[in-house]
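Task: complex structure prediction.
Instruction: return structure tokens for all chains below.
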Amino acid sequence: MGEPALDQVAKELADAHRRADPDTVAVYWAPDPEGREIRLVEVSGSVGETGDVLPYRFGPRVAQGVPYASVLILLSPAEWEKVKLGELELPEGWPSAEEFVALEEQR
Amino acid sequence: MATKREWADAYLAQAQEDLLAARRLTGHAPSVLCLLLQMVFEKAAKGALLRSGQISVSKACSSHKAASTLIQILKRHREYLAAIGSGSAYEWKDVLPLVQELERANPQLAQDGPQLEYPWEDPGDGSIRWPARHLPIVQRMDDPRDTSGPRLVRFAGQLCEQIETLFG
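Output:
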């Protein structure tokens, strides 16, 4: 059996994070043009404001069903607004916020 | 002779430097990331406690329990936590135990037990274990289904930033 699709793993990670943080407001998938890593932006009322965009990287974890590297950016709702307004910068090479794909919770 | 304030400022400056390095290690070397984060919290806490006059310089230089002391202070003074970040109590409930778990894994405190720097012998079966493979907090920080890592690194940044204000 081949590897699960990158977008499917992205949805699974988003769901796992939502279960861990009930204050999650929204999860966005920022497609990687090279299709090599999963990039998620999660907006949560449970995180304080740093005024900073911190990409936290994870290596692939094949045994856990995550065969791709991933990057997670946690933002407060106010920080997310600043990202949308261009007042907070996303990491270099990431698409703009308008190109993000909202990931709905999978039932 | 150097003042308490000079010692405090040096601890805080080094905590910021350690944090800068820690942030670059995510996704690459989670056990070293944890080691650096433990150092960040210890130094930031020593800076805060020195500034607020709650410890002496000699205590700061010799103690390895400054982070848990600071956590106790933060728990007693919720206004400090609120100042560090406007996140909900959920975040603090989630993150503060991780800071204490890192402290317990400090090599000076853990001694022959599970720790952040050196291998240790499992007393159960005599096998040799090491942090990168066997330390539970390292596994959590490197688990893409778990958001403990990003939360802890964010908190470290917020703490270092706000110590200037809170502990003047």
